[in-house]
């Protein structure tokens, strides 16, 4: 039996809904312990413009 990490960050994949990510997290035996959002920028005409938001959920292993 391989040991799972106690804490894992699950990123919402492009084309995946938040609900689907949470179901994936739960199916792997984790529960949500936090959420983080990071903007992704692209340089356009010398300025940085936000193009999308990366959402991650912190999963803690269910004992």
Overall geometry comes to elongated
Number of domain modules: 1
Rg, Å, rounded: 15 Å
* Secondary-structure-derived class: alpha+beta
Treating each run of at least 4 consecutive H or I residues as one helix, how many helices? 1
Secondary-structure element sequence? EHEE
Strand order of the largest sheet: 1-3-2
Q: Give the percentage of residues in beta strands.
A: over 45%
- Estimated helix fraction: 10-25%
Number of strands: 3
Low-confidence stretches: none
Largest sheet: 3 strands, antiparallel
What does the model show?
This is NETI motif-containing protein. Pfam families: NETI. This protein has one domain. 16% of the residues lie in helices and 56% in strands. The protein has one helix at 18-27; strands spanning 7-11, 30-44, 47-61. It has a three-stranded antiparallel beta sheet with strand order 1-3-2, covered by helices on one side. A hairpin with a 2-residue loop joins strand 2 (30-44) and strand 3. The longest helix is centred in the middle third of the chain and has 10 residues, at 18-27.
């Amino acid at each position: 039996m391989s040991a799972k990490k106690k804490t894992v960050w699950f990123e919402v994949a492009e084309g995946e809904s938040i609900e689907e990510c949470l179901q994936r997290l739960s199916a792997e035996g984790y529960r949500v312990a936090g959420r983080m959002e990071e903007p992704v920028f692209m340089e356009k005409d010398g300025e940085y413009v936000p193009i999308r938001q990366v959402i991650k959920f912190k999963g803690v292993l269910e004992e």
